[in-house]
């Protein structure tokens, strides 16, 4: 394919060289004449493993050249890959200035060349990191204005985030962890996948905003992992423990630790272990004068998420509430530090007329610490518990669903009926999204 790559920094330079190495005809575009001259001389404008030899090879073969002329590059390519920078503004917000400028230039070049009218639809692929909504709400309108046509019809549009690590980016390009294509239409996605034909790794074709968000999920989690490891290591050092030995054992657990476990957005966590152990770990760090801002904010973050559910109920304006689920984990009657108990307590304290159903919770069967906990936190539980799903549904104007109990899920009405506040992502959540009485937490 004929490809123009806008921006010859790390991402653009590596993408251009690797695509040329795969047999595509690539034109690199940059406003910096020094970068353009370096590429045309067969030299890399960035320091990166293997990039120097690769650029020398593809320039020598004629597969890669560089220019400052946007119009020439666009009109001599079928695909434009936008890899310009999106730095932070002074207040931390995303700077989209370079994205907007390049989108205008590509659109103007296409309009001037009349390519979209000739039946050879050009596809603009955004590879730069940008927040969800940037492409559809900002860049697509700019492109349509300058092209004088409709995105997805007259010009293709896709978002294709990169997952390249500096230092190993050439290796990562040819052996990617995944390929993500946010496609405005199927034809646009087909063009992007044709660029990477033959590369390994799983392919995900998703809506444009999903593709934009995936890059942020990756980087936020990477930062969180590094911060967690460093904070925990500092606590271990203060307590005289070999942190690397601890983490070797931690990393060996592929069932819970290094796995998909606990990584699905949902409701707050609770139970007899997580809150207690986090509190004691943070306290131990404080006693040892070790600052652990990540660990110390896990429980406040959890509490904030619980508060979001309360606020969703408040926004409905309803006063009769029903809660399905009470134990901290489905299939148990353990109420200790259950976020659903906390939720019930907050709603009851705000004067809501509350009914609760949990098939596993019976006041007469609660014993020991479990009974003591509920008598302290929710002493009015006996008058709040319902005997059936139907009793709660008959009572409630708004239902909070904190369980996937089949008896509850099958009884929940569609359309007319109480407002549904979904805390667990119900099996039919996708269908319910279109209903006016459905509210999902964290999705």
From TrEMBL:
Source domain of life: Bacteria
Keyword Oxidoreductase: yes
Gene3D superfamilies: 1.20.5.170, NAD(P)-binding Rossmann-like Domain
Lineage: Bacteria, Bacillati, Actinomycetota, Actinomycetes, Kitasatosporales
Keyword NAD: yes
Residues that bind NAD(+): 10-11, 30, 35, 86, 129, 276, 336
Active-site residues, record numbering mapped to chain: 273
Coiled-coil segments on the chain, per record: none
Residues annotated as domain UDP-glucose/GDP-mannose dehydrogenase C-terminal: 322-429
Family per record: Belongs to the UDP-glucose/GDP-mannose dehydrogenase family.
GO-annotated biological processes: alginic acid biosynthetic process
Organism in which the protein naturally occurs: Streptomyces lasalocidi (Streptomyces lasaliensis)
Positions of GDP-alpha-D-mannuronate binding: 166, 215, 219, 222, 230, 262, 264, 267, 270, 329
GO molecular function, one term: GDP-mannose 6-dehydrogenase activity
UniProt keyword terms in alphabetical order: Alginate biosynthesis, NAD, Oxidoreductase
Protein name, entry field: GDP-mannose 6-dehydrogenase
